[in-house]
């Protein structure tokens, strides 16, 4: 078994704006990804549709040219929204990479994809040949989840590889971010 | 981070009659529990209520002396059912321990508890101070799940510690049990 533990693994970690996904990454680094393992860590940020989070019925309207956000907003607003989305993605991934900075023998890759996080995470787990998917339990905030449903529940049910769902303990949530940072 | 990885961890693995939970245990041994870690592995088998798997409404009737299985069946049948339950528990845990036989620096404990697996697994994760809960995705069979709902989904939502849900790949399911055994 020790030999198998040394085998190459692709660990996909879904990160978002929430502290919980950073805690999940930190937990993963401390418990699943070891310095002496031939691991590739893939940090995935999913950029939700520009129209924002919405129920499936509304989301379907995005396929209609008349209701597509690109046609609802002026080019300036659309460009600003795109810039903002890119900045959020960059910020999240920079924070995630900072947590990984002490890893010496682990290759760290980043991916930014667009779409419904539920579908995209499942698709990417398959496409990237992930050996395990790691994610926070309550990604994408309360209001967003009201429309989206639980991303982690959806992925746990639909992803074929093992799924590790990490909740941020309340004590740590109360204490702030610093408690789970690796530095 | 390497130091934290060496810290003592209590890994709770819920096992049942299904091959998937044994695959989950095997995955856990290969990817989460390392020989050089100060880990305690707790193998938990939950013995469902003697009345069998049933919806919550029916299960509630167990509290009623008139409908409690102990009063529905003769003492001989009740004793035979108890013996059978114990034999199943022993068999499952023996199979699980066999998978762990090569672990040299990991303490392996076993627990048998009675009750609804959904509730018992969540309670035991809390009570035993589990650092992570590992379980198969589809425990307790198709018909049983129809009544029970998904045990893993329930636990992923309600357990406070990280939950690792492992699905047995179809290729392995087709190939039979031997492919995931450690021997």
Please provide a brief summary of the model:
Two copies of one chain form a homodimer. The first copy, chain A, has helices spanning 2-6, 19-31, 56-60, 69-72, 75-99, 117-127, 142-148, 151-158, 170-175, and strands spanning 9-15, 39-47, 107-114, 132-136, 163-166.
Structural commentary:
The structure is a homodimer of 183-residue chains. The first copy, chain A, is α/β, with parallel strands linked by helices and 183 residues long. Chain A has one domain (12-110, 131-180): Rossmann fold, CATH 3.40.50. Chain A contains 9 helices and 5 strands, in the order H-E-H-E-H-H-H-E-H-E-H-H-E-H. The first copy, chain A, has helices spanning 2-6, 19-31, 56-60, 69-72, 75-99, 117-127, 142-148, 151-158, 170-175; strands at 9-15, 39-47, 107-114, 132-136, 163-166. A 5-stranded parallel beta sheet of chain A has the order 3-2-1-4-5, sandwiched between helices. In chain A, helix 2 (19-31) links the parallel strand 1 and strand 2 (39-47). In chain A, helix 6 (117-127) runs parallel beside helix 8. The two termini of chain A are 31 Å apart. Chains A and B meet through helix 1, helix 2, helix 8 and strand 5 of A and helix 1, helix 2, helix 8 and strand 5 of B. Strand 5 of chain A pairs antiparallel with strand 5 of chain B. Chains A, B: Residues 9-167 form the UspA domain. Chains A, B: Pfam families: Usp. Chains A, B: This is UspA domain-containing protein.
